[in-house]
Every structure is written in C-alpha cells, then in structure tokens.
Specification:
Length: 98
Amino acid sequence: MRSFVCPLLRASSLSIGDGEDACQLTSGGSSQIDAEVYKSYSIWGHAIRQGHEFAASGTITQNNKLIETSGVLGSFESEDEAQLAGLGWCRAWVDDHS
C-alpha cells in the first residue's frame, strides 16, 4: 500500500498530476489514508461522518487519473465498516470493467 491524500466526496478541488503524491485534495481539512492497489488501480474506501453514523463511498484512480467514484453507498455504524464497503464497491467495479 502507498499513502496518498484521500479524494473525499466533499472536496472543494481535486488535482491529479504526476508522481506518487499526485492525487491531492484541497479543502478545509484532508485525511491521510492508504490507497489499496487492486489489479493496477488505486482504490479508496471513504467514511464520511454523518451524525452518529458514517456514509460510505469509493474512489478509483489509475495512472494518476480519476476513473470512477461511487456516490454514497449507504450508512454504517463504524468508520471501518464504511471504508470496507467503499473498498468492496471499488473491487467489484474493477472486476466488472477489466
């Protein structure tokens, strides 16, 4: 796994350029999380706090280019559950498109 700045759904801007740190989020605050590499894609599972729950989403990039985002996948009781749901969605998307 490589550490990247996470492209969250509430981002005010997302810049994707060259190099390992190419995927960067600029907003009021950003979270440092690990990207998982799956079949040559970098995938992220996101957990976005909504009250006492977490909304899940996923983001897929390849060669420093945004490929797909999921939108909100559902609400979960824990941050880990939401992130795992996002990663699961990403893996399924990659499997369906490769």
